[in-house]
Amino acid sequence: MKTLTRNTEGIYNTAQNYHRKFSAITRGARADRPRTQECLVLVEARDTYTPLLHQILQSCARTGAPMEVDCAGKVFDEMHERSLVSWNTMIGSLTQNGEEQKALGLFLQMRREGNHFSEFTISSVLCACAAKCAVFECKQLHALAVKLAMNLNVYVGTALLEVYAKSGLIKDASSVFASLPERSEVTWSSMVAGYVQNELYEEALMFFHRAKMMGLEQNQFTISSAICACAGLAALIQRKQQMGTFPSEVTYVSVLTACSHMGLVESGRKYFNLMITEHNVSPNVVHYSCMVDLFGRSGLLLEAYNLIEEMPFDATASRWGSLLASCRIHGKLHLAVVAAKHLSEIEPNNA
């Protein structure tokens, strides 16, 4: 144990005193004031009080500043006892600060030394693989996760499918998604983004629609991915026009569905008319439903009603129900009465 020293105030510098001093530093520190020098001074007590080193490591790693991350690395190297939290903190910090190769190397060191790891460890290392599109390492980690029954964890699964999607292995990403018993909003967002990255825009919008139908909250990342998918489909239609080929009915359904969910009224009108006038595609009930939804969501209820009346086939209960719901949202009582009347005629038992 280190010899105790007396400071200028006559207080012995025990490890516990260092611990209290560091706690005061972290409480009083501002985000814009580096703690590096103060932390390194306190590392003087490392031989006698391991919890202090753990606290310093987490504090330095949390800031994300390069100097602080270097400080965390020095503290980590000095530790004689490293807990799972210490390993995870250091690997996560390296990954978040663009030191993916070092993060992978640290994980290998962790394995060589026989240390146990958790789902959080695997997901952090997979994030490093995603940044480098390291497919080989990802597949090894996937196999290890399966062996240890960690592959069904939502964080591990989400990280896995992100690596596969970014590396162009969208089928593997889809398989991982399908295998997960639990999926978070991030999982759905990552899958939508993965399809967009691989230029599978229709699949991206189908996933976006599925997530919306399930009532999952759409974050900015998911919405931006869906918008990119819309733009990609629009570009696809233009390319096909230039090549003298026409988009399929399914492609138009995807485009119109996207326009409906994004509130792109003019774009929806444009592609609906393009489908009829230039590509000689006869709209089916799904195309009309997309347009009714688009007008209803955007408050253009009279246009939605007129389109239902102009359809070359009888409107279903779901169409009148959609219009009725839109009338309630936008306060159009007179059209709500008309929609409710038609709905009651089709489904009198549900009136």
Automatic annotation (TrEMBL):
Pfam families associated with the record: PPR (PF01535), PPR_1 (PF12854), PPR_2 (PF13041)
Example of a GO MF term: RNA binding
Gene3D superfamilies hit by this protein: Tetratricopeptide repeat domain
PPR repeat copies, ranges: 83-117, 184-218
Keywords recorded for this protein, A-Z: Repeat, Transit peptide
A single GO BP: plant organ development
Family named by the database record: Belongs to the PPR family. PCMP-H subfamily.
Alphabetical list of NCBIfam families matching this protein: PPR
PANTHER family cross-referenced by the UniProt entry: PENTATRICOPEPTIDE REPEAT-CONTAINING PROTEIN
UniProt protein name: Pentatricopeptide repeat-containing protein
Native organism: Prunus yedoensis var. nudiflora
